[in-house]
Structure prediction request, 283 residues.
Amino acid sequence: MIKLRVTVPKNIALILKRDQEDFEINENKHYNIIYKNMNFDYSEDKSKSVYKEDTELLQFTLSKENFIKFDTLENKKLKKADFFRQLITEYAMKSSYERELIVFKEHLERIKVAIENNKRIEIKFKNRDDILDPYFIASLEKENRNYLVSYSYYKEKIVNYRIKNISNIIITNLNREPFDEKYIKDLSENFNPFLSFGNEVKVRFTREGEKYYKQVISNRPKLKGTEGDIYIFEANDYQAMLYFAGFMEMVEILEPLSLREKMIERAKMMIENYLTNKSKKGD
Prediction:
């Protein structure tokens, strides 16, 4: 094993720290994973560049496996600091979802083997165990995240789990249950994290609600069309509740009726909460 000291610009160091927090890994493990999993071609020309901005020192130790990988005849002549500075900088300049694919490369490869061989997998998702029939992996550039879409035997429905939250992946000898291939294909081609494909929500906005809708883009459902003053969105209950609850008094849920009832119930609970707290305050 060898200890390394590498100087990088502070903006690069900040990206690395954010990844370590998001992926819940320490510095040393992070840099070792980058070297192990990333396809990288070292260039002497790039290593000659001088950083004009503020820099930060990174210190880490190569694992035994990575030391063996690096300590080859062709690599012995390379300046270690230059090599790893260029590697880490190239990693940090990629988009967040691409960096996630690098860090969790081994998980992804195992999942892909299961999908290709029509196998069921056992996993740990966050702190619970689950059994999945995996269908496809979806990468969302806008959200900078990667998801595995599967049938969950724990939740008894199709779910999407973020790749970074999956661990302990075991490919079983059991085949996946037969599934609606057309629906899964449509879901893949129209993927969003809420798995809203095939679900419709009809709403009517007030004038102020229309203005608010045009301004608020976070978690906004896909607009399928309009019928007069009625807007038709592609959204499931969860996405609709998450988005429209932000301006409840400016929007009316028309369909589905089950969602309309949920919104009415939510509004009643909100009013009751305010009145209860008001009376307590008066006491």
Notes: DSSP finds eleven helices and eleven strands in the chain. The chain has a mean pLDDT of 90. The longest strand covers residues 128-140.
